[in-house]
Amino acid sequence: MSSLKFSMPYDGNPEIIYDLIHTRETEKCKNTVDEIYFSDSAIYGSGRVPKKGINTIDTIKLIRKNNIRANLVINSTCDGAKAYDLKTIERLVNLITKLHRTCKLDALTIANPLLIQTIKNRLPQIHITASVLGEINSVQRAMFYDKLGADVIVSDRDINRDFKTLKEIKEAIGAKLRIMVNEGCMYHCPYRIFHFNYMAHLSKENKNPTDHFFNNCSLIDKMDPSQVFKSNWIRPEDTGKYKEITSLFKISGRTRDKDWINNTTKAYLDGTYEGNILDLMDSNLHIFKKRFNAYIDNARLVDFHTKVTQCDKNCNRCNYCESTATKLLKFK
What we know:
Blueprint: E1 5-9, H1 14-26, E2 32-38, H2 56-65, E3 69-74, H3 86-103, E4 107-110, H4 113-122, E5 127-130, H5 139-148, E6 152-154, H6 163-172, E7 176-180, H7 192-205, H8 212-223, H9 226-230, E8 248-250, H10 258-270, H11 283-292, E9 294-295, H12 304-309, H13 320-328, E10 330-331
Parallel strand pairs: 1-2, 1-8, 2-3, 3-4, 4-5, 5-6, 6-7, 7-8
Antiparallel strand pairs: 9-10
Helix pairs in contact: 1-10, 5-6, 8-11
């Protein structure tokens, strides 16, 4: 497997794509970007509130012009009863058909299995990614999404370090697996479904969220720093260890700014990062870093991946993450 392929976030700033193309042409990165994903509240809800001013047609044309797959995210987890009206679904299918024909939209990311099933039946040429918000964390659930038409499945980030389950899923399905590397949410977060339902409604209204959830979760991390290490992020240096499972990865962060997206993407394309690993984290750990000026020296995590991927996840009888936090987590 020569290189790993990353799905890169886009916040509506064309300079992100220009910088990526410049990097691709002038630097010999270890890995590549095979798709760029984005959302548009005028089309459908999603798991994040998109930056205002994104022009979907121009965005697709710019991405496709540079020979990269354009992936429109419609992964809302709460659509309301009207979303299931036949006329509503028909309007969505017609819009996607138009985008495919006029500007070569070639991929969607969807959480709702009913939408995957409907769109794949009507538009089999569209490449469909089953969203991480589908919480695909078992062979059984992966097989369902596979049969419904998903071409790629983004596995639940809570199983990022569970190689046994990941390998079993890979062997059971025809779809490819893509693993999200840096979301930064708590392991088995009890607030997760409620948070994304909240975001789904705000994304349709294009209203900025009040960070009830992130403020709460970052405070939990401060009170219990072991949670920072239990979160299932993957260092750039460790992505190659998944080569028997997949070569496809996804970088979370489409609400971050241009410099953050470029810095994080470059770290994963290079397969290495010097400095604070929290620099690369999205969601809760992004807020945690900013709120408490938290720092973890990535160079001191060399053996971390081996330990946490061999763990049985029974935190009641292991204090590895707690002791690691005591040693490595600093507040500057």
